[in-house]
Amino acid sequence: MSEIQGRSFRVILLATTMLILHLLATSALSSDIQTLREQAEAGDADAQTKLGFMYDMGQGIPQDYTEAIKWYRKAAEQGNADAQFGLGSMYYLGRGIQRNYIEALKWIRKAAEQGSPYAQVSLGTMYAKGEGVPQDYKKAIKWYRKAAEQGNAMGQHNLGFMYQHGNGVQKNYTEALKWYRRASEQGNAESQFNLGQIYFSGQGVPQDYAEAANWMRKAAEQGFAMAQFNLGVLYSNGLGVPQDFVQSYMWASLATSRSTGENYNKFSEARDRTAKMLTPEKLMEAQRITKEWEKSHPRK
114 and 233 in one domain? Predict the structure, then answer.
């Protein structure tokens, strides 16, 4: 089978999806739309924010970006950090409004300065990518660190990424490993994958195929295609796991089904090469366990 594949994950803007899950899980506000609307119209910033999120995501009401922006703005102008982040995200993504990085930066910064870890990560990313501001890795690190130190997994991941690649800071695999591990322990699949890569290549740590397989598996079990493919490679070569072409086929097949373009071609070729190494009975077994895995891991 093919060699282990690497991937340099770009730091990403956290859109409002994560924040709405947090808001809906922690909010004591009514989920009844009429009651919530009455509270929002009476000037309750928290109600305005939640109503904005619900319109943004189509949560319990038809999705309507114009209404989402309206309610985010009302709450944001009252200083609600979640609404400021939500409004900034709408400008950043161009949802219901023309994309505008300057306006996005303005509102995301306001939320970040109030301590919102979601906004801090996003502000860091805008500095890392030079969106609305000159590219500045040092400022990106500053904001990632603020989020990371609050326990935000994406902030931890992005900070680890900066240390691993030496962006705005001296390359430091020990620091990268520390932050990736913290994010990984919270279930961040990207960090789990990167940890697996670090242990596989021995970057700043003794090379350890078993530990590489351990972290690749955690990311693969979350449906992370590159990790699935790499786990298949480890099984094919017996690195950190017993050599097992049935398992190798399964993981390559799963990775293929979650990929497009060049990766799809690469993964499918590896899967087909592995299939030729299996007896008809073993191939049927590999196809069966692939279907069983898919059934037990519905895609989100």
Answer: no
Rounded distance between C-alpha atoms, residue 281 and residue 272, angstroms = 16
d(CA 164, CA 175): 8
* pLDDT tens, the chain, 300 aa long: 555 555 544 444 444 445 554 554 455 555 688 899 999 999 999 999 999 999 998 988 999 999 999 999 999 999 999 999 999 999 999 999 999 999 999 999 999 999 999 999 999 999 999 999 999 999 999 999 999 999 999 999 999 999 999 999 999 999 999 999 999 999 999 999 999 999 999 998 999 999 999 999 999 999 999 999 999 999 999 999 999 999 999 999 999 999 999 999 999 999 999 999 999 999 999 999 999 999 999 987
Q: Which of 116, 135, 154 is the last residue of a domain?
A: 135
- If one counts the domains in the chain, the total is 2
Q: Does 254 fall in a domain?
A: yes
In-domain check, residue 88: yes
**264 belongs to a structural domain:** yes
Domain extent at residue 103: 8-135
* Contacts of 208-214 spanning 24+ positions with Cβ under 8 A: 208/240, 209/234, 209/239, 209/240, 210/240, 210/241, 211/240, 212/239, 212/240, 213/239, 213/240, 213/241, 214/240
The verdict on residue 156 lying in a domain is no
Are 137 and 169 within 8 A, CB to CB?
Answer: yes
**pTM score above 0.70:** yes
